[in-house]
Write a structure and sequence with these properties.
The chain is α+β, with helices and mostly antiparallel strands and about 550 residues long. It folds into 2 domains: about 5-190 and about 290-365, FAD/NAD(P)-binding domain (3-Layer(bba) Sandwich), CATH 3.50.50.60; about 395-540, Glutaredoxin (3-Layer(aba) Sandwich). The strands form 6 sheets. Strands 1, 2, 7, 8, 9, 10, 18 and 19 form an 8-stranded mixed β-sheet that branches. The protein has a 7-stranded mixed β-sheet with strand order 5-4-13-14-15-12-16, with helices on both faces. The longest helix is centred in the middle third of the chain and has 29 residues, at about 340-370.
Length: about 550
């Protein structure tokens, strides 16, 4: 059957757009369908963690995000309301400066405050700038036949404004269609939940809060059983917009549609006559829903369709962006002919454990926030809620397209609050600042996107060059040799490359296009490198201990 589209993405939120951008950068033509023509004004997800910023950096969008972010460093105030004395103040940047070196990432380790309503236009503009992408806002998609099969899926698409329709035969279908995901439901994919579901509210409003508190901060965490109960007031931007988030006391006392949100907000601020304007009110559910399968035949679940978790810690959108980054290079590899379908199975085996781990952390944060103490107060403090570089940067792929070390710990119990860079297979490649002979400065992370990259020292370059050429010729995979050190392609300016990557004698490290280490070679050997790339791209189920 002839395919009209190799890849069709249904859903144009941050994750669908991220997948589109990465596919375009890898040269893959595709289409994205999104019902909505406008971005929702509601802020929703606010924190971009350092790994997501590193990915945006690859796409040339880091400065765009910096231009619209909340400029203040995240700070958390705990108390009864905005005008009373604070019981506790916590500044993550101060903890990070003591516990973790800023040399572990080219981006802020504490993350950036950039809400979805200002991030999404940046992603839309970037996605639509590529000729490889056919982006259609204001279009609807309906599955006609072949959903979840190994052949083509037939999809009908329609322009909602004028009724113009088309029928497509799609090779790979990406469900980025949200938490209720009609595609996931139609596939019959079951989900794993958690022991906590909390009906919550988000009230977007405009008011000048500057005279009552530091509105450049990230969160005011309020816990007062006599008035508002447990809730958060979060300034959204520097133009007077803020949001009330959580489950205030009034939600336990009367139906949602009867609540006077102006009165509730004034209780939260502590000012009975506070001037304010309600912009939007949206109910939501703090729950965990993880799809038991991320792939069914030619269909893949990404973002909220694959996983939903409470917002506590800001993990869900970041997990989704990283899902897209993982899946894109694998789709490109198969479509370009240098990988087999088996590589696509590793999207599930690599990314689903990350979602389960992150969701468990979000639940812990939620419980700490809303569970009541003996005085009836919530708003409990858990440092890992606010400082989690280990979760953001330290996650590893312990089952998938990775050739493991014999003594490697393959558990999913990495640290949340602490992060030490690791050169082990499955880990994100360590960051170092590099300078070229011409004076250009980049991060090691900037080297990884288009190819497999074999990193080694200059003195072993000639021997490894033969192995790289042979492996590329035999496997068809794009492989590039890069040397780091005196006389090499790049020289490290922020640390010892050989020590950080644990390279002895003639060793080398093979880094996948998504920046995760895939294999470590003990000596230049064409057969060993060719076999490793063959396992990674065509037979990952045979990944063995090196």
């Amino acid at each position: 059957m002839k395919f009209n589209q190799d890849v069709l993405i249904i859903g144009g939120g941050p994750v669908g757009l991220s997948l589109s951008i990465q596919l375009s950068r890898l040269g893959i033509r595709h289409m994205l369908i999104e019902r909505n023509t406008e971005v929702s004004p509601h802020p929703k997800s606010r924190l971009l963690n350092p790994r997501s910023i590193e990915i945006l950096r690859l796409w040339g969008l880091e400065d765009d995000v910096r231009n619209v972010r909340v400029s203040a460093k995240p700070t958390f105030y705990f108390g009864n309301d905005l005008i009373s004395a604070w019981r506790q103040v916590f500044r993550p940047a101060e903890v990070l400066s003591d516990e973790i070196s800023r040399s572990v990432s080219p981006c802020e380790v504490e993350g950036v405050l950039c809400s979805q309503d200002v991030l999404e236009p940046i992603l839309r503009a970037a996605a639509t700038s590529y000729e490889t992408a056919d982006i259609r806002f204001g279009w609807n998609a309906e599955i006609v036949s072949g959903l979840g099969q190994d052949g083509a899926t037939t999809v009908g698409i329609c322009d909602l404004a004028n009724g113009v329709s088309e029928t497509l035969n799609v090779r790979y279908l990406i469900a980025a269609d949200g938490a209720t995901s009609p595609i996931r439901t139609a596939l019959g994919v079951e989900t794993t939940g958690a022991d906590r579901t909390l009906e919550a509210i988000s009230v977007l409003f405009r008011s000048d809060l500057s005279k009552y508190g530091d509105t450049g901060v990230s969160f005011f965490v309020l816990s007062n059983p006599e008035t508002i109960g447990t809730a958060v007031i979060a300034p959204v931007d520097e133009h007077g917009r803020a949001a009330l988030l959580g489950r205030p006391k009034v939600m336990d006392e009367q139906p949602l549609e009867t609540i006077n949100w102006e009165e509730v907000l004034r209780l939260g601020v502590g000012v009975p006559d506070l001037p304010l304007e309600i912009i939007d009110v949206r109910a939501w559910r703090a729950a965990v829903v993880i799809a038991n399968e991320y792939r069914r035949g030619n269909t893949f679940l990404v973002g909220d369709a694959a996983h939903l978790m409470p917002p506590n810690g800001g993990f869900n959108m970041n997990t989704g962006i990283q899902d897209a980054h993982n899946l894109a290079w694998k789709l490109a590899a198969v479509l370009q002919g240098w990988a087999s379908e088996a590589l696509l199975d590793t999207y599930d085996s690599e990314r689903r454990p990350i979602a389960l781990f992150n969701a468990a952390e979000a639940i812990r944060n939620l419980k700490a926030l809303v569970d009541k103490d003996e005085d009836g107060r919530g708003g409990g403090f858990r440092q890992d809620h606010y400082v989690h570089p280990g979760l953001a940067l330290g996650y590893r792929y312990n089952n998938g397209a990775v050739v493991y070390l014999a003594d490697q710990d393959r558990s999913d119990n990495w640290s949340v609050g602490e992060y030490v860079q690791s050169p082990a297979p499955g880990a994100r490649a360590p960051h170092l600042w590099l300078t070229s002979p011409s004076g250009q400065t980049i991060s090691t992370l900037d080297l990884f996107e288009q190819n497999f990259v074999l990193l080694t020292k200059p003195e072993t370059a000639a021997a490894w060059a033969t192995a790289v050429n042979d492996a590329a010729r035999v496997t068809g995979a794009p492989v590039k040799l890069i040397t780091i050190g005196n006389g090499g392609d790049w020289n490290s300016t922020s640390g010892d490359f050989s020590a950080l990557y644990d390279l002895r004698e003639n060793e080398a490290v093979l880094v996948r296009p998504d920046g995760h280490i895939g294999w470590r070679g003990s000596a230049p050997d064409s057969d060993a490198l060719t076999q490793a790339i063959g396992i990674l791209t065509k037979q990952p189920e045979m990944a063995h201990f090196a």
